[in-house]
Amino acid sequence: MTNVVLGFAPTRRSIFSAPDAVKYADLTRKKLEEMGVTFVDIMDISEDGLLHKEEDRIKILEKFKSKKIDGLFIPHGNFGTEYEVARLCRECNVPVLLWGPRDERPDENGIRLRDSQCGLFATGKVLRRFQIPFTYLCNCRLEDEAFLRGITNFIAVCNVVKAFKKTRILQIGPRPFDFWSTMCNEGELLEKFNIQLAPIPMPELTREMNRVKEDGEKIQEIVNYCKENFQVGIKEEDLKTVAALKAAMKALADRYGCNAIAIQCWNSLQDEIGIMPCAANSLLNEEGLPVVCETDIHGAITAIMCEAAGLDETRTFFADWTIRHPDNENGELLQHCGPWPLSCAACKPTIGYPLAFSHPGAVEAQAKLGEMTLCRFDGDNGDYSLLLGNAKGIEGPYTKGTYVWVEVENLKRLEAKIVEGPYIHHCVGIHKDVVPVLFEACKYLGIMPDLYDNNYEEVKAWIRGE
Question: Do 137 and 228 share a structural domain?
């Protein structure tokens, strides 16, 4: 399904039916295999393939750590051994999914075989005592849609947590002087979240551009890609500079081990290389390496989270909240000079000139309409949260750059949230509903989810399988 690896540790308790616990563990294994889930099993450690003994738990922990699991899935085949589950979860320190198969009808003698739901109540209490965050998928059958949805959502949650915890952002230049709104606390990001920055000055970028230009074949390959996929409205030499910038940024991100880039896209950059970076940003965004504008570090973090929430299958776009729709009271224009990836476009994009600058290299296209998620990680005064919610693309007036008009449930409520903070005018969008994924991931990251649709109970109900 993805590169996410789950540790699979079904559990039982001795006073309930061991054969039935084994039966349901095996059925769950089979279901995961059918779904294409990558998981590490414990069949080679526990005699019955279930977690309920301390000596097994120690070996299971060693195996899971050696396999570098990204999440723990703990099915309760019967009541389960809650303290062994809690011990394992604490030491693995990854997201945890609790679930148990729905219990059968008591037999004619009033005998119940498993009581898995009851055991889940006990495990939840002990995990809270251990201060371990966990995700709960309500008691359901393997064949239920809720099970498929719950596993898929949890894998995406693990993907967000995994990406977030290894975040290192290539910062190309300081923020533009005028953009006080994009300042960040580098030390605090490291202390709170282990998010690292790799700052480089503009001369290092230009040196790298000169180096990659020596590989004429590679530059021409990028130029050819642009001519095939864009309408090119700039000079050939400027297009080669776009290609060199794209190749240089990718090389620098690889060199410094970064999974996103924040670039000071004006004005020093234009003085140095003579183009806007938007088209180069667009090319990298299409490859799944998020690049954001105006050295917006928090924006880059948002893009990483949003890409991971979409299981790295759908590209994200970085936008400004700009103006209200002239006719729709809940409509808003999302726009930027042109960094959006090709796959977001509703038409063949143009590489040309931006609205507010005279240098070439911006992209122009309307984005696809349809359902989307909009989000923004941000913080001030030591507190961090994630603004997120749903929107749908709507028709609206033409505007320069990459743009899309969207409608939300209550624009005034959203507007107030952005102004009152800790957010700014930047957001990240994706043509996919990843609100439940991002909402649930926040509990593992020490971030407060902030739903601008004010639908907390609906989102929580969806996660637990309703």
Answer: no
- C-alpha–C-alpha distance, residues 432 and 455, integer Å: 17
How many CB atoms are located within 10 Å of the residue 229 CB? Answer: 16
Kindly state the percentage of the chain with pLDDT values over 90: 90
Residue 381 falls inside a structural domain: yes
User: What residues have CB less than 8 Å from 244, skipping those under 6 apart?
Assistant: 209, 212, 213, 219
- Each residue of 276-304: b (16+ CB within 10 Å) or e? bbbbbbbbbbbeebbbbbbbbbbbbbbbb
Whether residue 1 is predicted with pLDDT greater than 70 in this model: the reply is no
> What is the secondary structure of 124-185 as a DSSP string?
HHHHHHTT---EE--SB-TTSHHHHHHHHHHHHHHHHHHHHHT-EEEEESPPPTT-GGG---
In this model, does residue 331 exceed pLDDT 80?
A: yes
Cβ(226)–Cβ(279) below 8 Å: yes
- Give pLDDT, residue 156: 98
What's the pLDDT band for 268 if we cut at 50, 70, 90? confident
Please give the structure tokens belonging to residue 385: 């949260």
19-35 pLDDT tens trace: 999 999 999 999 999 99
Q: Does 200 share its domain with 126?
A: no
Contact between 108 and 39 under an 8 Å Cβ cutoff? The reply is no
What letter does residue 56 receive in the DSSP assignment? H
| Pairwise CA distance, residues 153 & 26, whole Å | 22
Query: Rounded distance, CA 197 to CA 192, Å?
Result: 14
Task: Give percent of the chain with pLDDT exceeding 70.
Answer: 100
Question: Hey, CA dihedral for 212, 213, 218, 222, is it positive or negative?
Answer: positive
> What amino acid is encoded at 329 in this protein?
E
CATH number at residue 110: 3.40.50.10940
